Amino acid sequence: MNLKQQFEIQAWVDGELPWWKRRRVARLIESDPEARAEAEALRKIQTLVREEEAARKLPVSLERYWAELDAKIDRLQGERPRLDPGEALMDWVRLRWRRLLAPAAAVGAALALAWLALAPRTQPPPQADSYVEVETPLDDLGSFTFYSEAEGMTVVWVDAY
Amino acid sequence: MSRSDAYFEWTDTALADRAREGDREAFEELVRRHADKVYARAFSMMRSEQEALEVSQEAWIRAWQRLRQFRGNASFPTWMTRIVINLCLDHLRKKKRERSESIEEIHEQGGGLERRLPRHVFDPLEGLEREEWRVKIQEALGRLSQVQRTAIVLHDLEGLEYKEIAKRMNCSIGTVMSRLFYGRRRLAEMLSELREQIAPASGEAASEADGPREAKGS
């Protein structure tokens, strides 16, 4: 039995052999005692490995293991207190609400964007292109100030009387 | 009756649903049910009690954080062992980066010394008691190279296909087959040697008691 045949027997035992090779390898295992012993030994090794693991237990008590784990989860959650049934129910409601709220928020945002895109633009108020009074703090003195767009300057008008 | 007792008859899926909503007692019940298995899978990979404890607890914490991802498509213990396997692979990669490759791994990568060993047809544990073989196989698994042991754990325990193992181990399918092949051969040889060293008398006694053996595989 050569190396290639041994690899094929392993693949056959592992259920990984392509279908077109299965019959040939099965015939080899059936007819050759050496090939059959190889296949049986491989199966035995697999069984032993599985049984060895299945018999393995925690080396510490379950209580201690859980206590450590519980403390780690507490630390992770910032000492979040345990939930009583009422809080658990509220948590459930909040969770469900969030699940509903997220799609609702997405729809709302889409509608808002659509409105912004499609709404008619409001016309800006007509601007006087001549003299716009900006400030008249000196009324009592017979003067006023304005910005002249035509001239591009601020003008202070003072009455001469 | 405490709430944990009340959860005694709940299914894993129902407990996971409850734990997902923040119920720590439901999660505790899941831990009680599957802690041994998760720890054992971590030990199979890490071969160290302390590391296996740490990684298995890390896996439970990750599960707690990601319970929403558990859909019940696979069983809860299967979902958990996938988490712990991924964590173990991460830890092993990190360890490998931190140290140079061992001689064993260099041999394995290059085809290995085992290739030149005579082919071994074996019945490794004839004559050993159940508890004895468990100890022996544990020792032998611990002496395999890390890559061979990982391939064996991923295939024989985790039930992954060659293709999936290749992906996880970042190698070719041929390399996976080679690691399995030589790993199992080494395992069988180590077990045979251990049996000869430790229980030659019991093997002979068993042979005499059974009478003449038939040829292997006949």
How would you sum up this structure in a few lines?
The complex is a heterodimer of chains A (161) and B (218). Chain A has 161 residues and is mostly helical.
Describe the structure.
The complex is a heterodimer of chains A (161) and B (218). Chain A is mainly alpha-helical and 161 residues long. Among the domains of chain A are: 52 residues; 32 residues, no CATH class. Chain A is built from 5 helices and 3 strands; from the N terminus they run αααααβββ. Chain A is elongated. The relative contact order of chain A is 0.05. Chain B is mostly helical and 218 residues long. Chain B has 2 domains: 99 residues, RNA polymerase sigma factor, region 2, helix turn helix motif (Rna Polymerase Sigma Factor, Chain: A, Orthogonal Bundle); 112 residues, Winged helix-like DNA-binding domain superfamily/Winged helix DNA-binding domain (Arc Repressor Mutant, subunit A), CATH 1.10.10. In chain B, helix 2 crosses helix 3 and helix 9 crosses helix 10. Classes of the chains: A mainly alpha (161), B mainly alpha (218). At the A-B interface, helix 1, helix 3, helix 4 and helix 5 of A face helix 3, helix 4, helix 7, helix 8 and helix 10 of B.
